[in-house]
Amino acid sequence: MSINNSVAIAEAVELRTEREEERRSSSSGRRRPPRARSTGRVSWRKALTRDWRLYTLLILPVLFLVIFRYAPMAGNVIAFRRYRPGGSMFGDEWVGLHYVQLFINDPTFWRVFWNTLILGTLALVIVFPLPIILALMFNELRSARFKRVAQSISYLPHFMSVVIVAGMVLQLTAMRGTINQVIEGFGGEAIPFMQLAEWFRTVYISSEIWQTVGWGTILYLAALTTIDPQLYEAARIDGANRWRQIWHVTLPGIRPTMIVLLILNIGTFMAVGFEKILLIYNPLLYPTADVIATYLYRVGIFSSQFSYAAAIGLFEAIIGLTLILTANWISKRAVGTSLW
Amino acid sequence: MTQQSRPAGRRRSRRLFAAVATVAAGALALTACGPGDSQQTDGDFDFSGKEVGAMSDYGLDTTFVATEPVEFSLFYRDHPNYPIEDDWRILTALDEFQNVSFDIVSAPLSDWDQRKATVIGAGTDVPQIISVTYPGQEVQFVAGGAILAVSDFIDYLPNFSDKVERWGLEDEIDQLRQEDGKFYLLPGLREQLRPQYTYAVRTDIWEELGLSLEPATFDEFADQLRTVHEAYPDAWPLSDRWSANGPIEATVNFAAPNFGTSAGWGYGEGLWWDGGEYVYTGATDEYRDLVEYYAGLVADGLMDPESLTQDDDQAIAKFGSGQSLAIGTNDQEILRLRSTFEELGTDAEVSMIVVPAGPAGDKLPAGQRLVNGFMLASHVAESENFLALLQFVDWLYYSDEGLEFAKWGIEGETFTRAADGTRVLNPNIDINGLNPGAPEALNVDYGFHNGVWMLEHGSTVDLDLSMLRPEVQEFVTATVDKKEQHPLPPPRPLTELEREQVSLWQTALRDHVWQNTSRFIVGQRPLTEWDAYVSELEGLNKQAYLDVINGAVERAAG
Amino acid sequence: MVATNLNQGPDRVAARIFRPATVAGIKDSRSYTVFRAINGVLIIVICFVTLYPFLNIIAQSFSSEAYINSGQVNLVPRGFTVTTFQYVLGDSMFWRNYGNTVVYTVVATAIAMVLTTTFAYALSKRHLKGRTFFIGIAVFTMFFNGGIIPNYILISTLGMKNTIWAIVLPNAISIFNLLVMKAFFENFPEDLEEAAAIDGLTTYGILGRIVLPLSKAVIATMVLFYAVSFWNSWFTAFLYMDRSELYPVTVYLRNLIAGATAGDPSAAAAGEATQVAANIKAVTMLLITIPIISLYPFIQKYFVSGVMLGSVKQ
């Protein structure tokens, strides 16, 4: 390619990049070209005539949501009624906020609530960035074959059943398990991990990292493919070395994906792995390992507290929804990208 | 990271339900007296229109034959070891001889309880007969009216009533009664309880060191462990298992009665009857003695503290590799340990010891004679085959003939009876290792000896022991002869509201007990802090809980 | 661009990985070369850490009971035996259920992809009136659901029990996947769509001929996510199926594990139970995961640069 052509292409790509940047940062609606975007500007009639095909695409999915998600939601009403299994959900007593009061006044509930919160936050802060880093690391591999093989191996842990993973964790942390053997090899003293509540969070987060990092890279790798190769070309011509390329091309390229995933994960961060904890924990670890789901499981052993569980479920759901709305709003203001 | 629907999660709680139920058991035959007259017979039920297929002369020890072909819907628990087949002999036989067929709704063993709870809870298409239900599991469905109050129909279950009376189970049945005085579950009956769990020890090492295989007391057992430890300092004398939900639950369950308390699987709702009122088990001195014993074992280096945290596979691996020399076991698991050693070709041998006596003597837990049974959906009362159904379940599950049929099969077809009355399984059929190498299995190929149709191994002592290996028969007989049961505590049925409030307290209290039992045993908390621990329990509504319970006792008695 | 380097250089992997590259006249900086070396080593370590437990599982599944019970199995099978495999694979119900799994997965993934893709595409159009509302009702369902019993009543009332619909419909749209796909579509260059519109294509045409073919990476990813999720699911099947021949193999195997390890005395099994208990978990895990793991390499080839921007400019 002659220099002139390269320059021309580079300029074209520059223009494209600028336009893309502009488009991205303007999605908050501030400097919008005069396209009718918000409500009130276009009437429904006009919208339907213009976009009716798009609306037809919506029919089936919305129908799905209504039937399979919203219809059963009426069942959430049992959080406010004294539900008797086998009886009608609507025909029993209305007890209002009785169950809500029940769990608010239950000190055990708050302890497990905090544990859930802490574990969820740790998972978010520690586990979330790692797939990104790993994806970038994969991206820097020159050998395509090595890259493919390494990727395929890295996601194997995702497929391990939770029962086996729990067994493995217990084995690794045993007094004569691998970890303690290494510690003793370095001259330290064996640590009874499964007896000390303060170690649980580390053990749990480590197992989560091991299990989810490889699988989490898949989405980012898909995102990496959507980065315009000519951007790299242009950056190289501008004299950027690989580091700067990563910083100026790669990262911004996957930023939308990162933001979306971050917001989604913030919204669902309270969904800590119930089954894994149930299989690993023991009473000595209750102070840190006991989460809402495991607590409800134990309560359920004494008596099926459908209504109580439903009330707590609603509480968690409200928290989750609030968080995701807040995260979305912040993201829109600060970065320009958002879920909607 | 895709979303999946998360089940509310109440799986694998079978054992714990059984534990809860254990508290509700144990009529002592000593008081052969007092025919415990709390049986209420409701006003006569009108069976008109509901007698299709029923026998007019059905009574005790009559063979049930439906007068017309009848079909009952059955909630069937599919066990993977003997998946259901439509042409099973048990099904064809019932059809041929009893005129009874089934509409089977099947659910896998793995999540049986959850499926059952969902179907009954939803109330749609509930099958008529709901099999494999443990005492205590029916309570959640009572208030919603989904299941039948079977106590109203005792008069139509002659075999059931007969066995209850003969075996002195009235008090135990009373434990099943709910607040309205009725009971809703038809339990499996046991003539005699069957002890199953104990310690398995390395026979070769015990014999080598001259130790008796029948230590008289727990202290003696501890001394034995000490001797073993001195001889083999590199191995753990004892490394235990079954701590999935609580500290060494199976072990403390069989040890506790000898200390005068209950623990582990038997802990249940944490209530102990001290003769006058209920006290909280976790706060009693007897419970303290039990904890002290095990704390002592750990402190002396005799029991592996990981017993409380490891999973079963790890414990078995330690025993199998010789890193530990004793482990908790039951009569099935010991076969596994034994075959491991055989296959490895070592000289190791294993055997079960009879559970030793403790400070409170040589005791067995109260009750234990009402075990898993079945429920009936409440809508059977509207079925035209209602009476036939009652007669049928009475015959199959409670008559001697039905029990034998469900367990052994058909005389002449699957087994023969020797002159002295013992049953001999046909040589081409195997079950429980009686005819190893036989091409067929009684449950897999014929459908007999199936947990859905066979209640509690046959209920009678005769049937129960009939298929056990000699080793197990000895163990059972020795234990039952040696030990005495604790008396059965009085019933304490709660109202719906009480149960709701109380379950939260129960959970909090039990969590605290579990946690501190573990801490005391592994030595994280010195036993000198016992009193502090008891006062912590006070702070968890212990007294309020006991007040509700004792109030319920008075209400039931008065 | 990464691709330009692939056909150069010697064949020895190590040299290829660690050799500083020269591209368009600009040599990699020293620090970057060091980074690449460390990168390679780290990735090898990660591969080892993730592969090792898997190899252990494979070893266990071929080992005999005794060796597992004495903790002697590590990376290599000891007392090589295929008893458990024979036990499981010899059961015709296993194969029937496996067939069910395949059918359920394929149908469910197809339905899920159609619904999710159309939904995501429609929602990615910022000018769509009511868009926020529709996104809102979708996100809302991420947090609030009816619970097991209301869902059971619904499926029962609709008469879907014991049919394939009870498995493929209730979880047809994962909102998580929906939102990710929407984000991808939002970043799809508008000019291509505009150019196609000018050429006379309708919305459907644009979606089918322009957008989808160029979004292979995200579609492949979603197919993978959905397929794996449906393949591994057991809960809906267990809840809504009354007969064992309708189960997917996950329920079958889960049941097998429960039966082999249950301490329930009244379910005391024939002697064979004790033999399969030790490695039943390992065997079942392998049988379930091997096919679905093998799916990824086929998907990988779609992870190529999907958006050929150059084609518009030239």
Structural features:
heterotrimer; A: 340 residues; mainly alpha; 69% helix; disordered N terminus; B: 558 residues; alpha/beta; D-Maltodextrin-Binding Protein, domain 2; 20 helices
Summary of the model, kept short:
Chain A has 340 residues and is mostly helical. Chain A has a domain at 98-334: MetI-like (MetI-like fold, Orthogonal Bundle), CATH 1.10.3720.
Write a structural description.
The complex is a heterotrimer of chains A (340), B (558) and C (314). Chain A is mainly α and 340 residues long. Chain A has a domain at 98-334: MetI-like fold, CATH 1.10.3720.10. Chain A is built from 15 helices and no strands. The two termini of chain A are 42 Å apart. Chain B is of the alpha/beta class. Chain B has a domain at 14-191 and 369-408: D-Maltodextrin-Binding Protein, domain 2, CATH 3.40.190.10. Chain B has 20 helices and 16 strands. In chain B, strand 12 (415-417) and strand 13 form a beta hairpin. Chain B is globular, with a radius of gyration of 24 Å. The N and C termini of chain B lie far apart (59 Å). The model of chain B is unreliable at 1-42 (pLDDT under 50). Chain C has 314 residues and is an all-alpha fold. Chain C folds into two domains: 2-81, no CATH class; 86-300, MetI-like (MetI-like fold), CATH 1.10.3720. In chain C, strands 1-2 form a two-stranded antiparallel sheet. In chain C, strand 1 and strand 2 (26-27) form a beta hairpin. Chain C is flat. In chain C, 44% of the residues are buried.
Question: How do the helices and strands line up, and which of them pair or pack?
Answer:
The complex is a heterotrimer of chains A (340), B (558) and C (314).
Chain A: H1 3-25, H2 44-73, H3 98-104, H4 107-127, H5 129-139, H6 144-154, H7 162-172, H8 178-185, H9 197-224, H10 229-237, H11 242-267, H12 274-280, H13 286-289, H14 292-302, H15 306-334
Chain B: H1 14-22, E1 70-78, H2 89-98, E2 100-108, H3 112-122, E3 129-133, H4 139-142, H5 158-166, H6 170-175, E4 186-189, E5 198-202, H7 203-208, H8 218-231, H9 249-259, E6 271-273, E7 278-280, H10 285-299, H11 312-320, E8 326-329, H12 333-344, E9 350-352, E10 363-364, E11 370-376, H13 386-398, H14 400-408, E12 415-417, E13 423-425, E14 429-430, E15 440-441, H15 442-446, H16 461-466, H17 470-482, E16 484-485, H18 496-522, H19 530-538, H20 542-557
Parallel strand pairs in B: 1-2, 1-3, 10-16, 14-15
Antiparallel strand pairs in B: 3-11, 4-11, 5-8, 5-9, 6-7, 12-13
Chain C: H1 13-18, E1 22-23, E2 26-27, H2 30-61, H3 65-69, H4 83-89, H5 92-124, H6 131-143, H7 148-157, H8 165-168, H9 175-186, H10 190-198, H11 203-214, H12 216-232, H13 235-240, H14 249-261, H15 272-277, H16 280-293, H17 295-300, H18 310-313
Antiparallel strand pairs in C: 1-2
Helix pairs in contact in C: 2-16, 5-9, 5-12, 5-14, 10-11, 14-16
